[in-house]
Design a protein that fits this description.
Blueprint: E1 6-7, H1 18-28, H2 39-59, E2 66-69, H3 72-89, E3 96-100, H4 105-117, E4 121-125, H5 135-145, E5 149-153, H6 167-176, E6 181-184, H7 196-199, E7 203-207, E8 218-222, H8 248-263, H9 265-286, E9 291-292, E10 308-312, H10 318-327, E11 330-331, E12 338-339, E13 342-343, H11 347-351, H12 356-359, E14 362-366, H13 373-397
Parallel strand pairs: 1-11, 3-4, 3-5, 5-6, 6-7
Antiparallel strand pairs: 2-8, 7-8, 9-10, 10-14, 12-13
Bound molecules: pyridoxal-5'-phosphate.
Length: about 400
């Protein structure tokens, strides 16, 4: 077992970049609320606005379109709930949310809240077996619900199986029907090109801690014509959309992380693809019964996120595998959430048509800037023993 654990859960969160730590630390030493009018406040405001300009320029959007938030969850909630409430309050008759069935819970649960607690309707977009939302699926939903649709929401890339969506085509279809398009691009930033200026998405959720920025800071890109109803009320910061004192140090750190993510995306993707392919191929060589979820072509970084590997190991519970690998010094994820401490089969895999039993044996291995060949080797060395014990444990728990 290696001295330091092998971390293969970069999609959950990744190491903060040293220059982000420096920037955040430097700004934490500076006094000032960016909403104050005196010199200290104006200095803090300058840092916020320069960060906003830097991020906007890196993302190819206008500075006024960048709304700072506490991260991906808040940005998704603002986009989904804020837009739906706008339609509700203005009695537009647009009551339907057109949403992919494989969204992160930040979107999924916001939608379900609106359905359960308000009278929202939802049209789920089902993926194909690779986890892709096909443009014809959206076309059909828009033909049926377009004039009553408040929002289309399809994530840029899936956090579990790594499938990258045809966002430009999907956004184009939404635009043709005059329906705002939201995309959760939390996992995509830094891994695939994000030409936001060309794609025509109206709302885009991003977060700092998946790209080496601080935790607890993110942003929503919101086109100037988007007027989601604010979910927090108070000082009226951020175009009146998101009240609350801005976290100047975190925002400055976020700008540094976005710059690195965008400027190094191509090179980063190349390195990640090599490691990912070696990891997947190595696992398949060890156990040919293992299935890869999502599209996988060696060398491809367009259809699947370069840093994502998602494996289904027959006859195992993903949770047992996770704990056994952890004990062997390899930290990874099953990809799906627990509810009240009970592991649930992933809604993403079920939507892709994977049988419930097979969905339970899933493992998500995600790479990041600090990943090396030695991490892949450590995983491949630990895998056979963990699989063997997990299979035996499942046999025992079933009385086999
Ligand atoms: C696709 C996706 N959306 C949203 C989030 C939530 O982001 P945050 O942790 O910044 O709230 C995550 C985090 O796991 C994610 O993977």
């Amino acid at each position: 077992m290696p001295d330091a654990p092998t971390y293969l859960d970069h999609a959950a969160t990744t190491a903060v970049l040293p220059e982000v730590i420096e920037t955040v630390t430097e700004h934490m030493r500076q006094l000032g609320n960016p909403s104050s009018l005196h010199g200290a406040g104006r200095d803090a405001r300058r840092v916020v606005e320069e960060s906003r300009e830097s991020i906007a320029s890196d993302l190819g959007v206008r500075p006024s379109e960048v709304i700072f938030t506490s991260g991906g969850t808040e940005s998704d909630n603002m986009a989904v709930k804020g837009t739906w409430f706008h339609n509700y309050e203005n009695e537009t008759g647009r009551n339907v949310l057109v949403v992919s069935a494989i969204e992160h819970h930040a979107v999924l649960d916001a939608v379900e809240h609106l359905v359960l607690e308000h009278d929202a309707e939802v049209a789920w977009l089902e993926p194909d077996s690779a986890g892709r939302i096909r443009p014809e699926t959206l076309q059909k939903a828009l033909d049926e619900h377009g004039d009553r649709a408040a929002l289309v929401s399809v994530m840029w890339a899936n956090n579990e199986v790594g499938t990258v969506q045809p966002v430009e085509e999907l956004a184009g279809l939404a635009r043709e029907h005059g329906v705002p398009f939201h995309t959760d691009a939390v996992q995509a930033l830094g891994q695939v090109p994000l030409p936001l200026g060309e794609v025509g998405a109206d709302l885009v959720a991003l977060t700092g801690h998946k790209i080496g920025g601080p935790m607890g800071v993110g942003l929503l890109v919101a086109g100037r014509d988007q007027t989601p109803v604010p979910l927090t009320h108070g000082g009226g910061q951020e175009r009146q959309l998101r009240s609350g004192t801005l976290d100047t140090p975190a925002i400055a750190g976020l700008a540094v992380a976005v710059r690195r993510a965008v400027s190094e995306q191509e090179l980063h993707a190349k390195t990640m693809i090599q490691l990912r392919d070696r990891l997947i191929q190595g696992a398949l060589d060890l156990d040919p019964t293992i299935q890869v979820s999502g599209p996988w072509e060696p060398g491809d970084g367009i259809l699947r996120l370069p840093a994502n590997a998602h494996l289904r190991v027959p006859g195992c519970d993903g949770d047992s595998l996770l704990y056994l690998l952890d004990a062997a010094g390899v930290q990874c994820s099953t990809g799906s959430a627990c509810q009240a401490g009970v592991p649930q089969p992933s809604h993403v895999l079920l939507a892709m048509g994977v049988e419930e039993d097979a969905a339970r044996g899933s493992l998500r291995l995600t790479l990041g800037r600090t990943s090396t060949d030695a991490d892949v080797d450590a995983f491949l060395a630990a895998l056979p023993g963990a699989v063997d014990r997990a299979r035996r444990a499942r046999g025992v728990s079933r009385g086999a």
